Amino acid sequence: MRLMTRNFLLLLLSFVVFGLRGQDKVSYVSDGTENISLRVLSYGKKSKEAMDNAEKVAIQTILFRGIPGSNQVEYPMIGVNEKEIQEQHRVYFKELFDKERYHSFIISNVPISRFEKDATKKKRIIVDVKVNIRALRLDLEQNGIIRKFGF
Amino acid sequence: MRKSILSVLFCCMSAFCMWAQDVVTVQPKIMVIPYTKEGEDIRSILEQDVNKRVTLAKIKEAFDSRGFTTVDFTARLKAASQSAVFKEENQSDLKAQLIELSGADIYVEAEMDILLSETGNSVKVIVSAYDISTGASLANKVGESGKFYTEDIGKLASKAIESCAEEFLNTIQMKFNDIVENGRSVMINFGFDQNSAYSMSSEVGNQGLQLSDEIELWMEEHAYKNNYHIQGTTDTQMIFDEVRIPLKDPKNQSNYNSNKFGLAIFKFMRSLGLQIQRDIKGTTIYITIM
């Protein structure tokens, strides 16, 4: 009985945690000279968390999804199978995401909305994020995550 | 103590050997050339039109930004102009010969279209990359500058190239990744000398198979990942328009090329008791059976 109650509470907690956070969205704004501007709809409990999350989501989208309409990263920079790729290069991605190295590839991060609740009562912010594509690509090449241009 | 020193020394030697075996793959040679219509002089096109030179320079710049150096078309053109070989030929042949003599594996052709209007001028650039040996198209993109009230066509051409260069290179890179995965393409042409006593239907080897069958069985075994395509077979000719060969020799990881594949064919033909002549132009292998 106690075990059942514990499992129920854990399930309830996970619903609450996921319920608080919506699905982040990334859309293309413009291509610059070796940089790209993206508009990110980012969720978080606090404003800073949502702003940081916007940068992370922008980098993740470039690496694993690609940005349709963009000249520079129309296709994912690495590949769509992010779980397998991150498993394969665990050290690099731990450094990039967990240790927040992704901040170093962000040129600017400008909020264009207030940190507020959306229609579903989830807190979110809209941020324009500019990413240094050249530096990101070079970093991936130098760490052997993607191949350099050529064979 | 002595044993441990020896084992450490052995480990260091093994590590060194492994490092030494890490051969850098030979990169493809890429040449960027202007598009020419029939009868147009490729030599004068670049000299007369600064905007076309800007377009080519911008494309080369895009390759440079990825750390890749292209074959200098202008230098090759000047060298070709001094060569007597080209003087008697027509312009379209000159272009073909220039591509062939450049030693390039891939050429990128750039076409520029200038659109002048009262509401502003714009430039459209069409860039296409081709594999020289097979003629396969590797990437095609159209870049547009957008309309501006300017007469600086060179600047508009730059904008047009910038709008598509990265996407163009990314598409080429996707094809390169396929080459790394599935091998590079070579074309193989089997033919016969005029005085040859053989034909494709001649029975050769120990199994009493026809020569064309023996060749195909060998190709099936030696093409990288069994990847080959026969364009056609007649009694006097057999053309493989695409045979994939590995980038690196699977035996020792050294660079592998069409020349080495040609040598493998030579050994195979000798094993069948046939004398052949081999000619290799870029990634096309011509085998003439004597």
How would you explain this protein's 3D organization?
The complex is a heterodimer of chains A (151) and B (290). Chain A has helices at residues 2-20, 47-64, 82-88, 90-98, 133-142; strands at 25-31, 35-43, 106-111, 116-117, 123-132. Chain A is of the alpha+beta class. Chain A has one domain (23-142). In chain A, strands 1, 2, 3, 4 and 5 form a five-stranded antiparallel beta sheet that branches. Chain A is globular, with a radius of gyration of 18 Å. Chain A starts with a helix and ends in a 9-residue tail after the last helix. The model of chain A is unreliable at 15-19 (pLDDT under 50). In chain B, β6 and β7 form a beta hairpin. Chain B has two domains: 30-179, Rossmann fold; 183-289. In chain B, the strands form three sheets. In chain B, strands 8-9-5-11-10 form a five-stranded mixed beta sheet. The radius of gyration of chain B is 24 Å and the shape is elongated. Mean pLDDT of chain B is 83; it is low at 14-21. Chains A and B meet through loops of A and α7 of B.
What keyword list fits this structure?
heterodimer; A: 151 residues; alpha+beta; five-stranded antiparallel sheet; 5 strands; globular; B: 290 residues; Rossmann fold; four-stranded mixed sheet; 11 strands
